[in-house]
């Protein structure tokens, strides 16, 4: 890391750990953060999880989705292995699609205090109907709050061609 401020990663319990325990019960405490070394500029970090699963709270049937998480960090970034294990922890968790995306966003806001974040779940159809909830947040009183309002109003103006469901 020549020329960059080094950060201590000693507080991370999952990165590099070869004996990872997988939790299949919802567990936000799995999430870990690292320092953002580029706080002087805006940039998006995007995670795509094409194998997300949770359970329908009414029937117990599995729900499958691609989960898209994008954020503009402030001082913290989410450590990717912890995010993967966190998303796995929804496997036996029962919640409606709309609740799942909001829970994920709320947990990441608590962990990271990002400038901006959005979570979009694209769930595969059950009973001939797919549900694709989208939620976002911009830090109040900043340009990111305005950005969140704009993106919310325009997020699906150009729907993609659906060819994977």
Query: N-to-C terminal Cα separation, in Å?
Result: 43 Å
Mean pLDDT: 88
Helices and strands: which structural class? Answer: alpha+beta
* CATH H-level homologous superfamily name: GTP cyclohydrolase I, C-terminal domain/NADPH-dependent 7-cyano-7-deazaguanine reductase, N-terminal domain
Number of extended strands: 6
Q: What strand line-up does the widest sheet have?
A: 2-3-5-6
Order of helices and strands: EEEEHHEEH
Low-confidence runs: 1-6
Roughly what fraction of the amino acids lie in strands? 15-25%
Number of domains: 1
CATH class: Alpha Beta
Helical residue percent band: 10-25%
- The CATH level-2 architecture is identified as 2-Layer Sandwich
> How many H/I helices?
3
What does the overall shape look like? flat
Structure overview:
The protein has 165 residues and is an alpha+beta fold. It has one domain: GTP Cyclohydrolase I, domain 2. The chain is 22% helix and 25% strand. The protein has three helices and six strands; from the N terminus they run E-E-E-E-H-H-E-E-H. It has helices spanning 80-88, 97-112, 143-154; strands at residues 33-35, 45-55, 62-72, 76-78, 116-123, 134-138. The strands form two sheets. It has a four-stranded antiparallel beta sheet with strand order 2-3-5-6, with helices on both faces. The longest helix has 16 residues, at 97-112. The chain is flat and about 45 Å long. The protein starts with 32 loop residues before the first strand and ends in an 11-residue tail after the last helix. Residues 1-6 have low confidence and may be disordered.
């Amino acid at each position: 890391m020549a020329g960059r401020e080094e950060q201590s990663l000693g507080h991370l319990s999952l990165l590099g750990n070869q004996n990872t325990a997988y939790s299949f019960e919802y567990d936000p405490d799995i999430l870990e953060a690292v320092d953002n070394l580029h706080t002087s500029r805006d940039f998006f970090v995007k995670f795509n999880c094409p194998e997300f699963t949770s359970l329908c709270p009414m029937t117990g049937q599995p729900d499958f989705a691609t989960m898209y998480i994008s954020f503009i960090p402030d001082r913290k970034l989410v450590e990717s292995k912890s995010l993967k294990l966190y998303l796995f922890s929804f496997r036996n968790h029962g919640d409606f699609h709309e609740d799942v995306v909001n829970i994920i966003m709320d947990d990441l806001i608590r962990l990271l205090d990002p400038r901006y974040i959005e979570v979009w779940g694209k769930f595969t159809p059950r009973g001939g109907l797919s549900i694709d909830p989208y939620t976002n947040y911009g830090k109040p009183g900043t340009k990111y709050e305005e950005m969140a309002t704009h993106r919310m109003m325009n997020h699906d103006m150009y729907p993609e061609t659906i060819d994977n469901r």
